[in-house]
Amino acid sequence: MTGGALRPYRAIISARFRMLLQYRAAAIAGLWTQLVFGLALIMIYQALYRSSPAAVQPMAFAQLASYVWLGQALLAMLPWNVDAEVRDMVRSGAIAYELARPVDLYGLWYARAVAQRTAPTVLRAAPMVVFAGFVLPLLGAADWQLAPPPSLAAGAGFVAALAAALALSCAISVLVNISLMWTLGSDGVVVLFTTTVALLSGLMIPLPLFPGWAQGALGWLPFAGVFDLPFRIYAGHLAAGDLAIVLARQLGWTVALIALGRWLLGRGMRRVVVQGG
Amino acid sequence: MPQIVVEQLVKTYQVAERTPGLWGAVRGVVRRRHRTVRALDGVSFAIERGELVGYIGPNGAGKSTTVKALSGILVPDGGRCEVAGRVPWLQRVAHVAEIGVVFGQRTQLWWDLPVIESFELLRDIYRVPPARYARSRDRMIGLLDLAPLLDVPVRQLSLGQRMRCDLAAALLHAPAILFLDEPTIGLDAVSKLAVRDFIKQLNRDEGVTVILTTHDLDDIEALCTRVMVIAHGKILSDGALEELRARVTRERWLTVDLVDPGVAIDDPEAAEIRRDGHRVCLAFDPQVVAPAELIRRITSRHAVRDLFVENPPIETIVARLYAAHGAAGDTGAGAP
Amino acid sequence: MQDALRLYRAYAAASIRGQLQYRASIVMAAIGTFVATAAESVAVWALFDRFGQIHGWTLPQAALLYGMISVSYAVCDVLGRGFDAFGAMVKAGDFDRVLLRPRSTVLQLIGQDLVLRRLGRLIQGLIVLGYAVTVGTIDWTIARAALLIGAIGCGVCAFLGLLVLQATSAFWTVDSLEVWNAFTYGGLMMGRYPMPIYRRWFRTVFTYVFPLACVNYLPAVAILGIGAPAITGWLAPLAGPVFLVVSLQLWRIGVRHYRSTGS
Predict the structure, then answer these.
(1) Helices (H), chain C
(2) How far is CA C27 from CA A122, A196, C22, C73, C137, in A?
(3) Angle in degrees, CA A113, A130, A46, rounded to 5
(4) Which H or E run contains B294?
(5) Rounded distance between C-alpha atoms, residue C162 and residue C168, angstroms
(6) From the list C19, C97, C261, which residue is nearest B108 (CB)?
């Protein structure tokens, strides 16, 4: 692709960065909240671990701590909020103008989702990693820290899995935005979706902590690929050699959801045009 | 004893500055610069009971700051102010119970409720005795023709209908003073006339003191005998409309409809300001050349189908006033 | 006071009437909230299913903590929208209208909305509380029942106080209101487990700064009869209303600041 073709996408991402930087106070506030949440969760899990036999512990506490911090740091990557612009466009009927844009519509929406997922993530993850990875050990709380990956292979595997997770997350995001054309972003539906994602991705509770009989099903759902699987690679809970399976699951879902999204978008646009916006 | 007295009112704000661009935004995370703005710089005036006063000025001139101070919302940094014997910001609750305020762009009615239910809530908020409320309500319904709107939720009203309901709502507790901020903005011509007629009648028959802040100079011309002009926090002019006109310029405009377009009109004592096809507009000073004389000269030299003489529109008057006092930028004339 | 209550009733009735026009949407949203809060319970249940107990507390005992704090928060959530959404109000300049009315700002904001769709959270909390009360082996007396209800009420005061503080901070900065989430959502999450599992400085903040432990853990200990009987659990909940009163004083300072600096 030439630089010219990439320009609209670059512009979107740059604009989002600029907008976020303006809200420095909001960024710091959000960071603070997540730090409190992360610390509280770790204290809760530590208490649970302390008073229980090792048999029920699916992973070492140090691995669990890293898992929790990764979840907090990469929170913005979860596909759990609806693009407010799209929702407003659907409600107002301005969605019809999207048809007039001279770019591939799904691609444009996907780029928007990438912007929405990456910009806040980068801004939020960096300070969290610094705090959880370096400040905590300095404060004498090394057992709570975000530990580095156990091996180079794990680290490299994590990076690959994270990239796939981003692609998957954006595919889910765009699909949700597309569904707005039918659900119109009613509060109930959005909350249901947000809850599902939070629960099944490993954010609310690390997936390995779910009952044993649920593990199989959870692993096959697309949400596990966004957080749980990459985090397990990082922590060493999944061997670096399992990377291939992880990537396969992530990318498999990504491709399927992109295909579904493109098809639905086509149908949705036709529906909007027929209704006259 | 004037009802409203304002003496040397002073108010300054601190405004944060933003540097443009991505790099500026990053810098802004670390350090923010501030600029001091003098919104009110020694504003003084007095208003008698029952006056209908227009208050105009460019955006950022200090109009809304003055109104906020007068209504008791804002505490100024200096100066004196008394409304009906009270200092507005020192006795907020007692003071606001006796004033009504209407914002043109915002409604005070409850969005999802039928209009009449908003009225009833306001009756409870303002503690209006039932009999007095019934009287006010019925009078407002009659004067503003609200009967068909009473059971309609506010969100379904047109802008004109909503403005009429907002006017009624602001007067249910029979305030002695009414502040109007852009009451006719965005309204269609019929609604504008209805609103203006209502205000005029209210002022004339009830003696309600009205302070009208607006960019719509037609409102001013239709309603106000007295106009105050503010710019950069200072009152530039305060008095009758004719005085304002005379102060700024003696100029008059002669507009002629020529038979042949494109003909140049050459007169040493008239300047061409606008030409639109057949229509040419000339400015002249009636003290240098009498209107009748100028008309005679022009019509003797050109074939003229029609003509009229008028004062420059108030927009021009006001724009020149602002320019004379270094207030650059928009007069807001024609702003949506 | 009676006058204020009368106006509040009028406000509440108006708010409910307004929302009933969107009956379907509200029911959907309430169901959504219910499911969301139920999901959180599922997560907690999963932890107990695996680990059995935390700091010696079993699931029914923890459910008492969970139920109490959930109900307190849910009631506050339904009542406190005026303060919760105050940031947006200030940004839009709509607070001026509140100042233009001859009533207390607090009364107007509390009366602003009775959010029916958040009842989903309340119902879910009541279910968990019901489970704790029936399945748990609690030695019920009238005093204990009164303490339970009183503690929940004081919890509502505590969370309202937090919302008032959040709204007050909006007078100075509209963008960083998220800081308070650490206390509201954080408190909600942490209040589900016994306080001793947290480090000392956490416990100090959530007892003496925001009195979470006072309206939740301490009375729960008294109700469950854990450890030696002590007066603390019975008196501690009063910290909730005290906190609210302090917050309201700070709110007045905030209003004064707003009126001298303009918007």
Answers:
(1) 2-20, 23-51, 59-79, 81-84, 86-92, 95-99, 105-110, 119-135, 142-169, 181-190, 200-204, 212-215, 217-224, 232-235, 239-261
(2) 38, 19, 9, 20, 35
(3) 95
(4) helix B291-301
(5) 10
(6) C97
- Indicate the number of domains in chain C: 1
A22 to B25: CB separation less than 8 angstroms, yes or no = yes
- List beta partners, residue B54: B212, B227
Residue of chain C with shortest Cα separation from B114: C18
Q: How far is CA B52 from CA A65, B158, B199, in A?
A: 71, 27, 9
Complex ipTM:
0.92
Burial A98-113 (b: 16+ CB within 10 A, else e): beeeeeebbebbbbbb
- What are the backbone angles phi and psi of residue A53, rounded to the nearest 5°? -70, 155
Burial class (CB in 10 A: 0-12, 13-18, 19+), B139: middle
pTM of the model: 0.85
Closest CA to A28 of C108, C34, C182: C182
User: Do B183 and B163 meet the contact criterion of CB atoms below 8 Å apart?
Assistant: yes
Q: Which residues contact B303 (CB under 8 A, 6 or more apart)?
A: B258, B259, B260
The residue among C167, C185, C166 whose CA lies nearest residue C40 is C185
Q: What is the DSSP track for C77-107? A: HHH-HHHHTHHHHHHHTTHHHHHTSSS-HHH
Q: Rounded to an integer, what distance in angstroms lies between the CA atom of residue B182 and that of residue B198?
A: 15
Poorest-pLDDT segment among B141-155, C49-63, C170-184: C170-184
Contacts of residue B277, Cβ cutoff 8 Å, sequence gap at least 6: B261
- Cα(C159)–Cα(C181) distance, rounded to whole angstroms? 11
CA atoms of A32 and A12, how far apart (whole Å): 28
Q: How far apart are CA A86 and CA A69, in angstroms?
A: 31
Pick from B71, B66, B65, B68: which is nearest to B95 by CA? B71
Name the residue in chain B with its Cα closest to that of C255. B73
Contacts of C10 in chain B (CB under 8 A): 120-121, 124
CB A106 within 8 A of CB A7: no
CA atoms within 13 A on the CB side of C5: 2
Question: A188 and C189 in contact by Cβ < 8 A?
Answer: no
Distance in Å, alpha carbon of A19 to nearest chain C alpha carbon:
13
| Residue B5 three-state SS | strand
Scanning the structure block, which residue is given the tokens 């707005």?
A180
**Interface contact A40-C47, CB threshold 8 A:** no
In 10 A of CB A259, how many CB atoms?
11
Chain C nearest CA to A190, separation (Å): 8
On the question of pLDDT at C169 being above 90, the answer is yes
State whether C102 and B127 contact (CB < 8 Å). Answer: yes
| Predicted pLDDT of residue B331 | 45
Predicted local confidence at residue B329, as pLDDT: 46
Q: Where residue B336 falls among pLDDT bands split at 50, 70, 90? A: very low
Give the pLDDT of residue B31: 64
CB contact under 8 A, A186 and C56: no
Q: Which residues pair with B78 in a beta bridge?
A: B10
- pLDDT digit string, tens, across residues A67-109: 999 999 999 899 877 777 777 777 777 777 776 676 788 888 8
